[in-house]
Q: What sequence folds into this?
């Protein structure tokens, strides 16, 4: 990857040589397209914005060319514009020739279909309605082997929850600084609206905790990557999930790096996750990862 510091001297040198010798040079750049679309939800009787990033060659390629899709979820209190506003995620669409879709998941929906708030049906929305819309309106490779879903914090929880509940749709999934045990987040403003009272409905909280449902990954055949900073307050629950997956023999990629619950960490981590997914796409989803006998 060219950093800004490394790229500018190279660009100036190329332009200098071109002017000196009359050469025609092509300076590499990023030409991805970012679109904001409105995606309707029949489940919630309204439409929500979504940010879609298309690789540069999407516009230049023939109508027969189709692309794999990575769905990237925001965290609590955020919206669909978070990733493009706070990171350079668009460059990854160009680099790996993938589409990136960032749907709106509400401020505190946890991407579930809440039994306590009938108006909050974000798992159906993201896992079914958004995917159907994107496949209908863009040139996608519409198969589970060419779809991935990931997200940060609340979005990390949502990505893993949706991937497990929609295994026919997603062949790869990830989590960055994921709140994989919402029972540790019972003081999060608004969480009780969708999860219910943690004392009266403790079984629902436990049933939906990713750390408690690790065995669900055993036969899911999902290419799985989990990433969390060593200074993140969610790192311990991520370690618990990692240990359970190891005990179950579930193939997965697990990474801890220096950093906390910050955009600096997330903007770095997403680069590795998109590389992971792009590799999985090239090898039909989960095939590069040895399965338990």
A:
């Amino acid at each position: 990857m060219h950093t800004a510091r490394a790229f500018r001297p190279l660009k100036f040198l190329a332009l200098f040589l071109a002017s000196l010798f009359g050469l025609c040079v092509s300076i590499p750049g990023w030409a991805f397209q970012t679109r904001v679309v409105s995606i309707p939800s029949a489940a919630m009787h309204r439409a929500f914005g979504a940010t879609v990033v298309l690789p540069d060659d999407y516009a230049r390629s023939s109508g027969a060319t189709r692309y794999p899709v990575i769905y990237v979820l925001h965290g609590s209190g955020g919206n669909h514009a978070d990733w493009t506003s706070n990171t350079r995620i668009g460059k990854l669409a160009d680099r790996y020739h993938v589409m990136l879709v960032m749907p709106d998941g509400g401020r505190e929906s946890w991407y579930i279909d809440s039994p306590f708030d009938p108006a909050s049906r974000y798992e159906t929305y993201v896992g079914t309605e958004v995917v159907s819309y994107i496949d209908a309106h863009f040139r996608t490779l519409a198969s589970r082997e060419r779809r991935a879903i990931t997200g940060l914090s609340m979005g990390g929880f949502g990505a893993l929850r949706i991937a497990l509940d929609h295994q026919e749709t997603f062949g790869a999934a990830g989590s960055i600084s994921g709140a994989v045990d919402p029972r540790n987040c019972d003081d999060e403003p608004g969480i009780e609206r969708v999860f219910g009272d943690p004392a009266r409905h403790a079984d629902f909280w436990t049933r939906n905790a990713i750390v408690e449902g690790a065995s669900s990954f055993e036969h899911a055949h999902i290419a799985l990557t989990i990433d969390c900073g060593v200074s993140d307050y969610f790192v311990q629950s991520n370690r618990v999930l990692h240990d359970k997956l190891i005990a179950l023999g579930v193939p997965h990629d697990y990474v801890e790096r220096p950093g906390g619950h910050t955009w600096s960490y997330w903007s770095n981590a997403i680069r590795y996750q998109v590389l992971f997914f792009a590799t999985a796409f090239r090898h039909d989803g989960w095939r590069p990862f040895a399965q338990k006998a």
Q: What stands out?
A: Residues 1-28 form one domain.
